[in-house]
Amino acid sequence: MSHWIEPHPTGIYVRPADAWIDPSVPRERALVTHGHADHARGGHGRVWATRETLAIMALRYGTTAGAAVGYGEDFRLGGVSIRYVPAGHVLGSAQIVLEHAGERVVVTGDYKRRADPTCLPFEPVPCDIFVTEATFALPVFRHPDTGSEIDRLLGALHANPDRCVLVGAYALGKAQRLIAELRARGHHDAIYIHGALERMCALYGSFGVELGELRLATGLPAKAMRGAIVVAPPSALNDRWSRRLPDPITAMASGWMRIRQRARQRNVELPLVISDHADWDELTGTIREVAPNETWITHGRDEALAHWCMTHQMRARALALVGREDEDEG
């Protein structure tokens, strides 16, 4: 096992670079994979991330001390060669490829293998150590085709012209992807959004992600949103804000909607299995593809994925990092 990269509860320490990957506490040097709060935070002395992730961190956490890293661009810290490649998770998300002492380590952050019109696709990189998430690392989690889930949403909308469809979607990544997927399926009417989504949608637009006509739902009469799609953070689905909408069909876009009990707990009428994480087959297929000597599992259903690795004669270990939440799945 490598002795130059060390997993700690608060992050992964790259010793010769004196830098931490996705640390959950402030560090002098931080290499950040993407902008979700369980991977990125304020207070670091210096941050290396993609230009998009730095913009997200500035918007969400006020981070200003950052060095922008382009995809595929090599730089060095303390003798470690470092390269960021796309992770396919959200805008600006990256895997961090580290090379030192004849070894290559890939830290994926969070990732998915499905096509996403709002970010670059995952790029597999063969390596010695592969550091992977395990959010949906159980065989029950096999995500359906995204287009078919969008068609279900549009079918519910067209069958209920006097109602609206209120979709819960996380503010960074999921909301923008949902809107872009709707556009790709031919829905070009105005989409109404909760005010909490406005700035992040504008940021996506500033990086060339076309989301079409968006209107703030706040303050509008109910009749204005009949026959429309309204996108809001999951926390808004059942609060006072949603009560003024025209008899909403409550939907939720999440990989967790595969579990019926989760949908019932949230009073979701239309569960949409749309995830920004890899499902079971994609996780195991990715490990086969990059063919590491050892797999490190950061968070999620780590026992199941570690067991799968061992039954396929692959070395694996769970890292038990603190502060990792499935935030973007709501």
TrEMBL record:
One function term, GO molecular function aspect: RNA endonuclease activity
InterPro entries per UniProt: MBL, Metallo-B-lactamas, RibonucZ/Hydroxyglut_hydro, Xnuc_lig_assoc
Signal sequence extent: none
All copies of domain Metallo-beta-lactamase, residue ranges: 8-170
Protein name: RNA procession exonuclease-like protein
Record bears the keyword Ribonucleoprotein: no
PANTHER family: BLL1145 PROTEIN, CLEAVAGE AND POLYADENYLATION SPECIFICITY FACTOR FAMILY MEMBER
